[in-house]
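Researcher: Next sequence.
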Amino acid sequence: MYTTLSPCPMCSGAMLLFGIPRVVVGENNTFMGAEDHLRAHGVEVVVKQDEGCVEILAGFIKENAAVWAEDSGQSKE
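Model: Next structure:
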């Protein structure tokens, strides 16, 4: 599976449930998901730190700060 950012715990659980053996992560500086959990369960996690992914996410966060705060668990509400 390929993903722009590090998979959250819920997405990581789905990967394990469906037996996905490998995930390629575009970047994990913006959000660090459950990569260690995936590795502990035998999933190969490859992190690219791709500048294009960083730019995409930075733009999304800038334009949708409230949505990002909620989706990433940073919302105070």
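Model: The radius of gyration is 13 Å. The longest strand covers residues 22-27.
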